[in-house]
Write a structure and sequence with these properties.
mainly alpha; rod-shaped
Amino acid sequence: MSKSKFVIDRLAKLFEQGLISYKDLNSEILNILRSKKDEIIFKLDLPTKEELEILKKRIEILEKKFERLNKNKTKKKSKKAKKF
């Protein structure tokens, strides 16, 4: 309820100031929504693209190591004992 009240208050201030034309009202609404979007993104503390790329590379390296370990285990199990 408080979020909708915030938007309504902002719109009321715009009408009081005389910004009644559609273009002005549209641009102000977009600015309000952008600022709210930026606040939400900042609160989420999302990683940057560079951080994501580094994490992807780390995961790829770990996956390769895991595959090598699995191949070594399967090779060890397939050995047969010699009969005399």
